[in-house]
Amino acid sequence: MLAWTIYLSFAGALALALMPKGRPALSRWLALAVAVAGLVLAVLGFVAGMGQGRVTFVDLPWVPAMGIHFLLAADGISRVLVLLTGLAAVAGVLFSWNIELRTNEFFAFYLALIGGVYGVFLSFDLFLLFVFYEIAIVPKYFLIAIWGSTRREYAAMKLALYSFAGSAMVLIGLLAAYATAGSHSTTLDALAHANLPVSFQMGCFPLVFTGFAILAGMWPFHTWAPTGHVAAPTAASMLLAGVVMKLGAYGCLRVGIALFPRGLDPWGFSFIGIGSWRDVFAVLAVIGIVYGALVALAQSDFKFVIGYSSVSHMGFVLLGLMTLNQIGVSGAVMQMFSHGIIAGLLFAIVGRIVYERTHTRQLAELETMHLSQRLPFAAWAFVIAGMASMGMPGFSGFVAELQVLAGAWKVNPWWVAAAGVGVAVGVAYTWRALQKAFFSDALPSAHILEEEREHPFAAITWPEVTGVSLLLGASLLVGVWPRILLDTIEPAVKALLAGGVQ
Amino acid sequence: MNYSDLFRVTLPETMLELAALVVLIVDLGFLRKAALKVRVAVAALLGVVGCGLALVTVPLERVGLLDADDLNIIGTGGSVAFLQISILLLTVLTLLLLIDSQFTRHVGEYVSVVLMAASGGLLVVAAQDLLVIFIGLELMSLGLYILTAFDKSSGKSAEAALKYYLFGGMSAAFLLFGFSYIYGLSGSTNLYWIGDQIAFAGSSPLLYVAWICIVAGLSFKIAAVPFYFWAPDAYEGAPASAAAFIASVSKVASFGLLLTFSAFWLMPGGPISGQRDVIEQLLKGFYHAWQPLAVVLLVIAAASMIVGNLAALAQVSVRRLLAYSAIAHTGYILLGVAVKPVYTGQSSVFHFLLDSYLGTSRCFFSVLYYIVTYGLTTIGAFGVVSVVERATGSDRLDSFLGLHKRNPLLAAVLAILFLSLAGIPPLVGFWAKFNLFAAVLGVSAGPVPFALVALAVAMSAVSLYYYLQVLKRAYVMPAIDNSPIHAHPVTMAVLLLIAAAVVVLGCFPALLQNWIGSFYPA
Which residues pair with residue A71 across a beta bridge? Predict the structure, then answer.
């Protein structure tokens, strides 16, 4: 059933690409229909998969000479991330309702990207996974370059080249693993059981992990993320932060950690407390958490604040992965879901609800606009989303970060201490942005009030309300009742940690 | 030598030559007063028919033309048949793209030269004797020089042809010089005999001189660094269909020749029998004789990847961009030709022979796969460039501005072809690269092949930048001129066919692999 999310998205993309121009309304509804159908399938698949382990949907020989299979399957981790993709896709279409330029092409690229993302999460053959991973690169480029804003061509090219460089590293690692394993199959199972030599795993793990982590926004390879997020049109930044960064993190987990588990073993010597690749990447993740938060604190562009906050939050995902224990890795998967929802929401509020009306994202200019009175919906939505983003109890972010930190504590309390600084700064930058953009102290003069009354902002539309409710509802539901996801995630993580890919 | 055999083996070449004569007779004899359009259509159609006749007569059985010692002079079947069929199919495509061009009034001559050059290509991939190889190469090359110069109204065309001709003459001299040394060392012009002789004699300084000369000559044909200077000029100056022909057919033929060389000289190919120590000595002899050549080829491969990709970054002319990207692709393919298993004496001879046979034949398959799909894609790319060029008068990057509005279908074809060249899945270019790199690592997973494959993958990441530069103009940047661009229906049909093939072969890579495999008996 879940496999149809992929086919449906690509079919939708093709239909939209072939559609005659000048029918924007039809394009929108078609895109929404496809995205909703994907979400429905994802939910049904999630519900049907509860309590089950891995389920294989399709297993066909694709390139028999090289042992490549068209193998689609899902375990708990995949099901959660497919659900996230479905939610983000629907919300993205809703927040792109006002795209008028080349509408059908926009949604065609959009659905192609979504299809690639579904494909990555559902592939259990290494090369199939890689193929879908690369398919997702090209639509991103065009989405940003054509429909973006600030320095869009630069940002789009930077994003495309970073992604492609990352995937080149992954490809080198995969070719090497394929040649070294000498197996006649490229399924993840076969490669995980190929008994790759420890020295080879030590060399290949950092290559593949870094390749994927570039897309997950790991410091110091994160610089594509803020520029890309800022330049992208709202729906694309929602997808970039919401699901594309998760592709990288998912690859780190599914390929990096599962195929090369011995690559994380200690080197046998240590240098300033760093004695394995695990320490290296954990330290980079912690630096990402703190650095992202500090930089977000200093931004003057509202969207850059969210962009850098993504780097910080993705640091938690990577830190969770590097704990290599049940609670930490489950927390990382949880954080992928949670950040996908919350970052999408924040980008939607800033990029669509606020920017499309005020035409500025500079905090200093927003300060003079009294948005709390003129756009109360945006203000309150941002207050709630901001609380979720800070990791307040009751929202998904809290559960996720708590688990990551608990897992990290077991390994190295210093990581937790440093990440704690990041959490504190996270409160500060969210607060600062909230205060400046919506609740500034400066009281408007009567004259300005008069003028503002004469030129009110466009009313909030139904797609915006629906999108915000959808995402906020998801975050609240998971925050209040985390078991709904954890029951699915935990067995899958346990299996993955226990024996490679089960 | 048996003349009936000669006739049987060279039937496709004969068909092409006959078709060339028929084209000349029809065009000069009957259509002198007809409109240019009609003449072009008739000539191209006759050429296509000639290629079709040649296609059905390509000999598939593996008994070629034998000399007095029962050694093959001209091979048939197997990879030879596959390469010949590919050359003919690619020639058909370039002829079809000719249909709406009007750069010359001498249509009959143009088509007949194309056919003759193609027959040279057929001979090159089949030949297994130095003299026949040389004749085939010259037959093809002379045709290519003429084709490059065919646009008489363009100064660039003449300049390109002169450069091409001078470089080509020099390379032919190098090649012949190298051949003469080989003949002196082995006493034969037959590749089987030469391979055995060289293996037993081991390496010598004279052999190195011969290697260097031959490599220089062949690097020119495949446009590898440092013998690539003609390529950007020829690609830029030649008429579009001639450039497409040079970029595809002549490249397939030249790589076919390189594969022949490497099959005979670089690995124990012939029937090996005898005592274990004799075989071991033979293997080591091969190793020592071929090692310097491998090093040279690998250096050339690495240099071609680097120079081609980096130089392409700076181009503003799309044809020159394609030329430099062709140099880069040459670098990738050379890896597949040059990486060979090394006999270290540790494993048993039997296992080594078996492994190296399997590994090298996989490498051969992947090289065949690569050159043919590359040829196909690049013909399509030149087709798109020529349509844009005719509408805007230039092949500069800026003439692609707003192509998605001016002709959405053409822009889509361009996007598919260029992304395939960049190696984005699920297009065929990705599988060609992946197939090749996996095969190279399968032959030898030592640090050197691994480093070269890593370099190749990294360089193809660089290549995405310049391919995207073209697509950016076509899709992203605002158009200066919004008038629609019209393409001839036949041209459009051919381009769509090529794009569809690139997608289908990319989604089902096994189709082409199985087809290549079907030329080899199990």
Answer: A59
What residue in A sits closest to B449 (Cα-Cα)? A176
DSSP state of A148: -
For A313-361, what is each residue's pLDDT tens digit? 999 999 999 988 889 999 999 999 999 999 989 988 888 888 888 888 8
Who among A131, A164, A176 is closest to B461 (CB)? A164
**Minimal CA–CA distance to B285: which of B187, B191, B198?**
B198
ipTM score here? 0.89
- The stretches of A298-412 forming alpha helices (DSSP H) are 302-323, 326-347, 355-358, 363-366, 371-374, 376-390, 396-411
User: Tokens at residue B404, please?
Assistant: 């998605």
A39-42 long-range CB contacts below 8 Å, 24 or more apart?
A: A39/A86, A39/A87, A39/A89, A39/A90, A40/A86, A41/A1, A41/A2, A41/A4, A41/A5, A41/A8, A41/A86, A42/A2, A42/A5, A42/A79, A42/A82, A42/A83, A42/A85, A42/A86, A42/A87
Sort strands A274-276 and B65-66 into parallel, antiparallel or unpaired: unpaired
Separation CA A133–CA B278 (nearest Å): 51
Going by C-alpha positions, the residue among A344, A323, A181 that lies closest to residue A252 is: A323
Token pair, residue A294, equals 């500090």
Distance, first Cα to last Cα, chain A = 22
Q: How far is A365 from chain B (nearest CA, A)?
A: 30
Task: Choose, out of A171, A186, A199, A210, the residue to mutate when testing the contact with B (most B CBs < 10 Å).
Answer: A171
Burial class of B202 by CB neighbour count within 10 A (0 to 12, 13 to 18, 19+): middle
Residue A321, burial from CB neighbour count under 10 angstroms (0-12, 13-18, 19+): buried
Q: State the best of B358, B401, B457 to mutate against chain A, taking most chain A CBs within 10 Å.
A: B457
Residue with the bigger pLDDT between B26 and A353: it is: B26
Phi (first) and psi of residue A500, to 5 degrees: 55, -125
Q: Which residues of B touch A165 (CB under 8 A)?
A: 458, 461
* CA dist., res. A426 & res. A313, Å (int): 9
Instruction: Tell me the C-alpha distance between A148 and A393, whole Å.
Output: 35
Which residue of B435, B472, B476, B520 to mutate against A (max A Cβ within 10 Å)? B476
In which element (H, E) is residue B327 found?
helix B318-338
> What pLDDT does B303 receive?
94
Which positions in chain A touch B468 (Cβ < 8 Å)?
141, 157, 160
What's the pTM?
0.91
CB-closest option in B441, B468, B509 to A141 = B468
A131 contacts in chain B (CB < 8 Å): 425-426, 430
Nearest C-alpha neighbor of A68 from the set A237, A157, A186: A186
Instruction: Give the number of A-B residue pairs with CB atoms closer than 8 Å.
Output: 77
Determine the residue type at B48.
V
CB contact at 8 A, B218 and B251: no
Say if residue B426 is preceded by a cis peptide, omega within 30 of 0.
Answer: yes
Count of other CB atoms within 10 angstroms of residue B146: 18
Question: In this model, does residue A497 exceed pLDDT 90?
Answer: no
Q: Which member of B426, B442, B465 has the closest CB to residue A179?
A: B442
Classified as helix, coil or strand, B75 is coil
Q: What is d(CA A114, CA A139) in angstroms, rounded to the nearest whole number? A: 9
Tokens of A239: 């997808």
**B416 → chain A, closest CA residue:** A138
- Distance between terminal CA atoms of chain B? 29
| B350 vs A: CB within 8 A | no
For the stretch A403-446, pLDDT in tens is 999 999 998 889 899 888 988 998 899 988 888 888 877 666 67
Which of B425, B445, B453 minimises the CB distance to A134?
Answer: B425
